[in-house]
Amino acid sequence: MANTREVAILVVLILAIIILVGIIEFFQPDIQEADASKFVVEDLHSRYTDADIEIITITEMYNDNGEKYYEIKAKVTKDHLTPCPERMHIFYNYPDQNFITQPTEYITRDCEVCTEGTCTIVFPEEAIIASHTFNGTEAVRNYIAVHDDAVPDASESDGSWTVIWNSANATNYYTINMGINGKIKSVEEIPKTAE
Fold it and tell me: Which of 96, 128, 135, 156 is the most buried (most CB within 10 A)?
């Protein structure tokens, strides 16, 4: 009789544990990619109020306890419409984990690009800086100095970068073409046509 009673108590305890686990799982928040993205964007906007911010990648991960989290890589570009944009990549884990995220990666800083080793222009901020600091771009540098409202526009196509510098107060603009290796192919001064 004692064995039947002990078995019944054991069955009730097991059922209670199963129900408790179910309740805990039900109330655990289901972390969504949109929540992670929203958190990162809001955090970055509060830290870098005038910066250009973009999520580059979001990767779903699981920690040692089997809990889902996201690894997020975001781009922050300060002074993005100036001759010297500062680009950095900032990394997050959402929700926070018990380990340190990758440190901030600085892509451009102090108006320098390709200061060591082989030059590869990967990002528009690098092309913008190269367009007025590399050898052969002295005319562009002078244009920017004279026209402090000059704004860059960088685009990449087929292994080449094109940067256009334009000032609303100038009668001309400049187009700079360079390879992704940083080699300046051409610097063209183009007069604006009267409309």
Answer: 128
The answer to whether residues 167 and 147 touch, using CB atoms and an 8 Å cutoff, is: yes
Report the alpha-carbon distance of residue 62 to residue 37 in Å, rounded: 17
Q: Is the pTM of this model over 0.85?
A: no
Within a domain: residue 98?
yes
The verdict on residue 186 lying in a domain is yes
What is the domain count for the chain?
2
Residue with tokens 């544990």: 17
Helix locations, 48-160, DSSP H: 124-133, 138-146
Is residue 2 included in any domain, yes or no? no
Full strand arrangement of the beta sheet holding 151-157: 151-157, 160-166, 172-179, 184-191
* Residue type (1 letter), 7: V
Task: Answer whether residue 1 is part of any domain.
Answer: no
Tokens coding 122? 């990967």
Task: Write out pLDDT tens, residues 117-175.
Answer: 678 999 999 999 999 999 999 999 999 999 999 999 999 999 899 999 999 999 999 99
CA distance 153 to 18: 60
Q: What distance in Å separates the CA atoms of residue 158 and residue 178, rounded to the nearest whole number?
A: 11
* Structural domain containing residue 172: 124-191
